[in-house]
Specification:
Blueprint lengths: L3 H11 L8 E3 L1 H7 L2 E5 L10 H10 L3 H6 L1 E4 L3 H13 L3 E6 L4 H9 L3 E5 L2 H13 L3 E3 L5 H17 L5 E5 L4 H13 L4 E7 L4 H8 L21 H10 E7 L1 H14 L6 H4 L1 H7 L9 E5 L7 H12 L1
Parallel strand pairs: 2-10, 3-4, 3-6, 4-5, 7-8, 7-10, 8-9
Antiparallel strand pairs: 1-2
Helix pairs in contact: 1-8, 3-5, 3-8, 5-6, 8-9, 9-11
């Protein structure tokens, strides 16, 4: 399991390549939640999500000869763009294995960063494809279940503490658990009293089911929050959750969609559902906050498409 030194080292390693994203206080949300509420704008990170932090850290930790050959990754979402971008900046080849049903905007964005995209009929077969390239010498990068990915993600926690030393609560969506695991380790090591709240949407409850079972559980995700659609939560993330989480919250897709619209109208940011879901989660635990609390909602990504938003609007009308 990663420690604070891994995260601090990752911060130095990746700092030339990533943005220190802003932490912004929202008066509207502060009034809404009854406590000082801040938005960590990680959707303004390179490629539109937090993923480059871990992607750069994974690649930079590779042996020089291995790195020169290139990297391969499986992703139908934000990690694809992150690896493609990181590989371009580091001037190495990148191959991204994607399922054929990946939204066109993700495929085109990944190609635009210079990566080679290999399409497969379904998600399981993308891993088979990646194994072929791995056997040929390409280094395999995992989107969430990798300690170097987690350590890179944990640098967000360092930034939150730097910007808001008196933070009391952080609300984070889960997915495969690599994001919340890294941030939790960083924050709990430096300020153990901070409360960490984990969020999932219905249909993407990898952590929730794992917490119930006491072990990793594999699922077939069906939430609209596609970037939370990991088939399982990382083992290390589960252990960190069991030890450190203050609470775990589930919200509906509809609640995430409504929050996405609210954030667009009131905070002027377009988030993914994987990010907007933190707002209805915070509302569900509003009674746990006091006026003097300083709450951070992590807006982890903003790679939303117009076609998706039209679909959400139709769902809302129905």
């Amino acid at each position: 399991m990663i420690g604070i030194q891994d995260i601090q080292s990752a911060s130095k390693r990746i700092s030339p390549f990533i943005i220190k994203t802003p932490l912004v206080r929202s008066q509207t949300l502060s009034d809404n939640l009854g406590a000082n509420t801040f938005l960590k704008m990680e959707l303004f990170q390179k490629t539109g999500s937090f993923k480059p932090r871990g992607a750069f850290n994974q690649i930079l930790k590779l042996d020089g000869k291995v790195r020169k050959k290139g990297v391969v990754a499986v992703s139908g979402g934000n990690f694809a763009q992150a690896v493609a971008y990181a590989a371009r900046r580091l001037e190495i080849p990148a191959i991204i294995c994607m399922p054929e049903y990946t939204p066109a905007n993700y495929i085109e964005a990944t190609k635009s960063y210079g990566a080679r995209v290999e399409l497969s009929p379904d998600f399981p077969s993308t891993f088979t494809s990646a194994e072929t390239f791995k056997a040929d010498g390409y280094a395999f990068l995992h989107a969430w279940d990798n300690p170097n990915q987690m350590a890179g993600n944990g640098t967000i926690g360092l930034e939150i503490l730097e910007s808001l030393p008196n933070v009391t609560d952080i609300v984070i969506s889960i997915g495969g658990g690599g994001l919340i695991a890294g941030i939790t380790v960083a924050v709990k090591a430096l300020k153990p009293e901070v409360r960490i709240w984990g969020v999932e949407t219905e249909g993407a409850q990898t952590m929730g089911l794992a917490l119930e079972a006491g072990k990793v559980v594999h699922i077939t995700p069906n939430s609209l929050a596609k970037t939370l659609g990991a088939p399982y939560v990382a083992e290390d993330a589960l252990r960190i959750a069991q030890q450190y989480f203050e609470g775990y919250i589930v919200v509906t897709d509809q609640e995430a969609v409504e929050a996405q619209q609210f954030l667009l109208e009131r905070a002027k940011v377009l988030t993914e559902l994987a990010a907007s879901c933190t707002l209805p989660a915070a509302r569900k635990i509003r009674q746990r906050f006091q006026k003097q609390n300083n709450i951070v909602l992590l807006l982890c990504g903003g790679n939303e498409s117009l076609s998706n938003m039209i679909g959400y609007a139709k769902l809302k009308q129905s």
